[in-house]
Amino acid sequence: MARRATLKRKSFFVDEHAVRRARKLLGVATDAEAVRVSVERTAEMEAFWQFMKNARAALKPGSMKAP
Fold it and tell me: Which of 9, 20, 46, 53 is least crowded, fewest Cβ atoms below 10 Å from its Cβ?
């Protein structure tokens, strides 16, 4: 799990319905927590897809065996 980042106060407008949906889907109690978790997961997924894009040419088809 990632280490806890230093929190900084930000002010911006968000779609209230989207934040409510995110809270429910993520299982968090507050709007702030929903935004923090959503931003962190988005950053992790972007890093993952960048890795996949870069690794695509490095792996040969059939080079990995399923467990």
Answer: 9
